Amino acid sequence: MRLTNSRGRVRLRMVAPAVVVFLGSTMSVLDAQVPPLLPEPVVAALAGEVSGDVVLRAVDVISEHHRMRGSASYLAAAQAVAERARAYGLAEVRVEEFPTDGRTFYGTQRSRPAWDATFAELWELAPDGRVGWRRAVRHASWEALPISLAQDSHSGRASAELVDVGAGTDPADYQGKDVRGKLVLTSSQPGAVAPLAVGRHGAAGIVSWAQNQRSAWWGEDTRLVRWGHLETFSPYRTFAFMVSPKTAGEWRERLAAGGTVMLEAAVEAGQAPGAYHIVTAAIPGADPALAHEEIVFTCHLDHQRPGANDNASGCAAILEAGRALVKLVEEGLIEPPTRTIRFVWPPEIEGSLTILAARPDWARRVRAVVHLDMVGGGPETKAVFHVTRGPASLPSFVNDVAEAFTHFVNEETYRFAATGHADYPLVALSGGREPLMARFADFSRGSDHEIYTEGSWRIPAVYYNDWPDRYIHTQRDEAGNLDATKLQRAAFLGAINGYFLARMSDDDVPAVQHAVEVARHRRAAQDLRRETQLQGDEVASYRRFRADFERRLDASIQEFLRPVAPTAPAQAAAELRSWTERLTPPGSPRTATTPAADVIYRRNPALQGTMTAFGYSYIDEHLGAHRVAGLRLLRYGGLWGSGSEYSYEVLNLVDGSRSVGQIRDDVSAIYGPVPMGLVAEYLGALESIGVVAR
User: Fold this and answer.
1) pTM for the full model?
2) Which domains, ranges and CATH numbers included, belong to the chain?
3) Which of the residues 152, 457, 600, 679 has the least number of beta carbons within 10 Å of its own beta carbon?
4) Considering just the CA atoms, what is the radius of gyration of the chain in Å?
């Protein structure tokens, strides 16, 4: 028997008899599954309504646009999403605008000026006895393949030789090479090369074949062109083109043999004051006492064309979740949500940071986030689907609820794949029939969820995502490589998870506690494995943290059900005044001291967000790149985490009650033992730029 919830009471339901099937010589016993947490009619209605084929059509529309921040094409994509949201019956549909001029800050995000291009071509020239050189092969075109122009390129023209500088990031790469007025060929991202190639040596522009996002399939297709970037705030106004390893390899061979490669480059592009365009929509809550609380569905709308899985898939999937929920409510097949469900389509990370910092009253009303970023990959993309938890600094039952629903879908889709029969196969008309086989993963950074869960806001978030993906950030990230069945399952999981949270009440507590207990057993197995890697006092410290984690996770259930208490304006003003008295303004240097283990820090409430945002690093600008390079925590590699993860959680753990020593112990339990001196040094650096104070 299994424990399920039937809106208002906990019921025990007998499980159907086991189905025994023979697969070759192997016998498999597959239990019929009972949906968790929600009444079966609700689950059946959602499973029947959500359509992966509808999601895939929306992916087609979005992926037609090269969606760079502030660009005309991004705005067209935003308007297309808004138009569909209105057609689907979502309420309060708006394309909100936030100024981006390079000077305005949203928390720790320096707004990046809008960037757009109207023309870009890169031609290889061939000798011509009459005119010297003629155009022979076009290797890059903004119109045909916009990914071939690096983001944040500026206008420029050049007809010049190509010089291979290897990585191009070390002065030794330029020894004996004259690159002034020429184009340089590099294996690095253009932004990393510009200071030396353009700033010091006077190159006219950059041609890159940089590779990233390496997986087992890296290098199998040398014709792939990968997305490239120049630095948004670089003083070197230049342009860069991206070419495939195949093209670069042919040029390198010719140059190494003493030959010449002549290229003609033309770019019309640049930055200008503009706006972040963020689409928002809602399903209003039906309970007047709870409607001001919000469950947020989010994704990120920006990316290169086509950018189908990354991330037209997530954008289209939350659209479909909204469509299905509105339709089922209107038909009376499910009850309306009691809390408001909000849908947000922002530029990645910077858009989420912007709207949270610019709308603090709204941010306080958000109770949980369902985030979808890359959810449509199938056999062609080699994707593995993940349900990724929030950071360990923010224990929440929300992640266990997501795992309960996902476990149900894993079992049902496997049962269908293995036997041809299941109550909930969740198969699209044009999609595959493979099982979902989603993995449950610990927190990882790299998308908008990390902004909501950051210590400034502490909003629980579940992150649905694919990895690996062999076509990520290339011209082959096309809708034709996605699987409608996978999209259907992702949209279903998002819809059912968000809907449950939007209606969760005291009656659901026993079922939620059961889901937590099931997930707790999985966590206990990992704890046992990790303890074998620790020694001495670290074992006791690890156990203490894990026990506290589970206690706080249990407490998160009742915290979620408590009414939101808005901060009074007078209280907020008083908090800011007290901080003004103790903080040195950001950017004003002061001597950083090494704090003792018992020093307690508080966050600056006027400075919200991560230390590295998108295309901008607050800590680099205010502390100085040289000092940042000397911070040992940022380079530290632990048993289960790296420097970026340690620094993210160290700042999250600053809560006005933990001492530096306690923060060191807790982050050691999360990612592996780290010397206290590294944690103290990092917090001292943040103190010196006004991020934290004693």
Assistant:
1) 0.92
2) 38-109+276-518 (3.40.630.10), 114-272 (3.50.30.30), 568-693 (no CATH)
3) 600
4) 26
